[in-house]
Design goal:
heterodimer, A: 170 residues, alpha/beta, Rossmann fold, 5 strands, globular, B: 112 residues, alpha+beta, Alpha-Beta Plaits, three-stranded antiparallel sheet, two-stranded antiparallel sheet, 3 helices, 18% strand, elongated
Chain lengths: 170, 112
């Protein structure tokens, strides 16, 4: 999937077009494969809660699947342990196109671990990530919002936040 | 028509879109900090950078660079400088580009 530069395609336009296609295709039926690349399992606990009655992600058309070949979206947690990279690559390659990759949690986003002999220190260097969900761990609500951003049903909000306070902290 | 369908119709909404109503538990979630630019000085920023365990904070000249994606909402910066760091209250932080999560906060308190 990588190394497509030099084909004359405008990457920005192509990715926008892909995003629109994905939204159209996956609007009401999207199957998620979770991939733990060395996380502490907090993220997995929160992901598991998505299927609980309180959050009930099935009502929104999202389903979990254990088979990469059935999956449309890869939800990656953990800092990408180097011993797991081959398995992660095989999982990604086994998924049919078009596919979405969602990096989940601060480890996957490159926050907690430095790149070292054991981990990549984030999943950004191993996958073309489409959506980044911060949090340690991200709450089920945050994950749900991230999934809806991934299929284009919610607009991302964080770009317009400046994380500056005007008055005294609450 | 199955009985359950009738029951669902009578009882109102069967399924909802997100977010149909605010979640009561959302206010209890730990959220990344927000900073007061008018209080931040270079010295204070360096202290905050030093206490951050997940490399979410860095100082770039007269800017405090806050990587929301790397933040674990541990609260150490808020404990270090309660006058300058408070709760942002934001948890819906999904971004379609990594750089959208990197915030540059001016050090309005000067470089002293």
């Amino acid at each position: 999937m990588t190394g497509q530069s030099g084909t004359g395609l405008n990457v920005q336009e192509t990715s926008e077009e892909l995003r629109r296609t994905v939204t159209r295709l996956f609007g009401r039926s999207l199957h998620i494969r979770t991939l733990d690349t060395g996380s502490c399992a907090s993220c997995e606990q929160e992901i598991r809660l998505l299927a609980a009655p309180h959050y009930d992600l099935h009502r929104l058309g999202f389903f979990f699947t254990p088979a990469p070949r059935h999956a449309d979206l890869l939800m990656v947690t953990g800092p990408m342990a180097r011993v797991f990279e081959t398995a992660a690559r095989k999982t990604y390659d086994a998924m049919p196109d078009p596919k979405i990759v969602v990096a989940t949690g601060a480890c996957a986003l490159g926050g907690v671990y430095q790149p070292d002999p054991f981990t990549r220190g984030g999943v950004g260097s191993s996958f073309p990530v489409d959506v980044w969900i911060p949090g340690c761990p991200p709450s089920p609500l945050a994950l749900l919002q991230g999934l809806l951003v991934a299929v284009g049903r919610l607009a991302e909000k964080v770009k317009d936040l400046d994380f500056a306070l005007n008055g005294a902290p609450r | 028509m199955p009985l359950w369908t009738l029951r669902g119709l009578r009882r109102g909404i069967v399924t909802t879109r997100y977010p149909a109503r605010p979640d009561a538990s959302a206010a209890l979630l730990p959220t990344p900090p927000a900073f007061r630019p008018d209080v931040l000085t270079a010295g204070l920023a360096d202290r905050l950078v030093a206490v951050c365990p997940s490399r979410a904070l860095a100082r770039d000249g007269d800017l405090l660079v806050f990587d929301v994606g790397a933040c674990t909402a541990c609260g150490r910066c808020q404990a270090e400088a309660p006058q300058a760091a408070g709760d942002s209250g934001e948890f819906e932080l999904a971004a379609i580009a990594r750089e959208h999560l990197i915030k540059r906060i001016p050090l309005g308190g000067g470089l002293g």
